[in-house]
Amino acid sequence: MNAVIHTSWLQDAPSGASAAATGLAASMGAGSALAGVDLLRTGLALAFCLALGIGAIFVIRRSHGISGKWLPEAATRRLRVVESTRLSARASLHLVEYGNRTVLLASDASGIKLLDAQDGPATEPKS
After folding, report:
1. How confident is the model at residue 30 (pLDDT cuts 50, 70, 90)?
2. Are 81 and 93 in contact (CB under 8 A)?
3. Which of 4, 17, 31, 103 is exposed most, by the fewest CB atoms within 10 A?
4. What are phi and psi of 97, to 5 degrees?
5. What are phi and psi of 41, to 5 degrees?
6. One biological process GO term for this chain (predicted)?
7. Range scoring the smallest mean pLDDT among 5-9, 15-19, 87-91, 122-126
8. d(C-alpha 31, C-alpha 25), whole Å
9. pLDDT tens, position by position, 96-124
């Protein structure tokens, strides 16, 4: 990409300034594509953006409880949805274990209702 620099506005300036502008135009027109680009500043900006992206990934994974090799496992979770089933477009049942307690919840358009609560884990139905 060649940049065009107009030097006509420098014709009334001293000859040194006109020569400098002409030299600048010649160096940009026939020079390298990186003329005027500060590579150190560009590299630092790239490193900053990469660090920002990695930090954002870490925060998102941490806030959603997603574990990886370098994140601790979520072994201390006390709440577990054993089963859910949809009864209609706006109503569903949820069997939830909380610690050593099992609760049956119904959710519909009016809210959530406790249907049953028992001590102990949920048992599998016998076939």
Report:
1. very low
2. no
3. 4
4. -100, 130
5. -65, -40
6. bacterial-type flagellum organization
7. 15-19
8. 9
9. 998 889 999 999 999 999 999 998 776 66
